[in-house]
Amino acid sequence: MNYFDRDLESVHQQLVNGDVTSAELTKQTLANIAAQEPDLQAYLAMNEAAVEQAEAVDAAGIDPENVLSGMPVAIKDNLVTTNMPTTAASKMLENFHSLFNATVVEKLQAAGAIIVGKTNLDEFAMGSSTEKSAYQTTKNPWDLTTVPGGSSGGSAATVSAGQVLASLGSDTGGSIRQPASFTGVVGMKPTYGRVSRWGLIAFGSSFDQVGPFTRTVKDNAYLLNAIAGHDDHDATSSDQEVPDFTAHLNDGVQGMRIALPQEYLGDGIAPAVKDAIRAAAKQYEALGATVETVSLPHAKYGVMAYYALASSEASSNLERFDGIRYGYRAPEAKNLEDLYVQTRSTGFGNEVKRRIMLGTFALSAGSFDKYFKKAAQIRTLIIEDFQKVFQDHDLIMGPTAPTTAFQIGAESTDPTEMYVNDVMTIPVNLAGLPGMSLPAGFSAGLPIGMQLIGKPFAESTLYQAGHAFEQTTDFHQHTPQLGGK
Ligand SMILES: NC(=O)C[C@H](N)C(=O)O
């Protein structure tokens, strides 16, 4: 059993008709995950109570109005849960159990979704390959020798492998969109503030957003319907009205003004990726949209600004992991200072330590103006670049990542090689805009992702344009290597 060729509505219909119960579906889902887990390594924890929870939904009756009722889903292991451990893929949080659920977890459960397990990530969401997990490297279902992207690699892989129809990830600089691109699924990074961050383990608090992975654009809209909205626990969550994100899916792109930034088809982008995006632009024109080349002149400084700002925020957010309040504690410390040093030296992996040091340096008295302040100024210039383009365009299109999935181990020597993966996703986080990746082609058997970027809170426009593209292409219907097993 897998979910290829199925979507939320079709499975929901089976549940409503009684063709299958949520408990049966959940058992099949768990069995399928267990069978593929030795190859895929997408999960860090399974929900022991999943079947019991599904039985409870069956007993209460599947809600015919809610496609998530009784539906198995997965979540990234940096979203806290009371009934499963939360590690953020760090040794620091080995065996950590939260006393509360993340708001998005509460919302999924309120909708009747069955959270089957928690997916692997780069430690504390720092990375673009899941190789930085302290526990395991998730594989890409399209080619098990390649990475699924990151940091939400487990959430992307489980949907791509047909194990669940939906999962949640988080995106600070590309962590939903880049893995979606690498694994051939749909991934949405909502507008900053659209989804509550309460219970998401903080990395870069002015960037982090939770968002869904799905096989189709419509399914993605359903998931965002379920998780969006203001939350009193998160002061940065917006009180903007939450529309029905499925409402405009069939409106098409006739008359839509799409911008294609020249910088997004420049040096460093693989030729096959550029070709796929040019073909997608033609497709949009054929569907009645106009596509115009524009410029985002400061986008190229985005990666530098991000690594100063996000690392600064990380250095502050990760201060709490001191060996006393949470998780891991070094066993043989001589005194308090030694406890801090030993705990943090052995509890954090190298990439996390690198970011903490980078951030601490950028925030230090002698460097603040030179790095942090400069980066904040670049952030403003990038926001202004987008504002200018959006004065006379409805959305921006381009590649999600410069390449398709790379080999495991390929980018492990120079950390900055990994950082440039996010060159086209990071500006979107710097500006707080919504961005979505969807399948737009293949190169040597590996998926290529297209990124659509919208105005603040215009996720509906992205879904509308994404759905129009998906309806006229079949990239989302291909089955990965692992699916043949
Ligand atoms: N968290 C993210 O969005 C991933 C990004 N590649 C980073 O390492 O910061």
UniProtKB/TrEMBL annotation:
PROSITE patterns: AMIDASES
Keyword Electron transport: no
Keywords assigned by UniProt, alphabetized: ATP-binding, Ligase, Nucleotide-binding, Protein biosynthesis
InterPro entries recorded: Amidase, Amidase_CS, Amidase_dom, AS_sf, GatA
Secretion signal, residue range per the UniProt entry: none
UniProt enzyme class: ligase
Family annotation (Pfam families): Amidase (PF01425)
Catalytic machinery residues: K76, S151, S175
Function (record text): Allows the formation of correctly charged Gln-tRNA(Gln) through the transamidation of misacylated Glu-tRNA(Gln) in organisms which lack glutaminyl-tRNA synthetase. The reaction takes place in the presence of glutamine and ATP through an activated gamma-phospho-Glu-tRNA(Gln).
Subunit composition and interactions: Heterotrimer of A, B and C subunits.
Family membership noted in the UniProt record: Belongs to the amidase family. GatA subfamily.
Protein name (database record): Glutamyl-tRNA(Gln) amidotransferase subunit A
The organism of origin for this protein: Fructilactobacillus ixorae
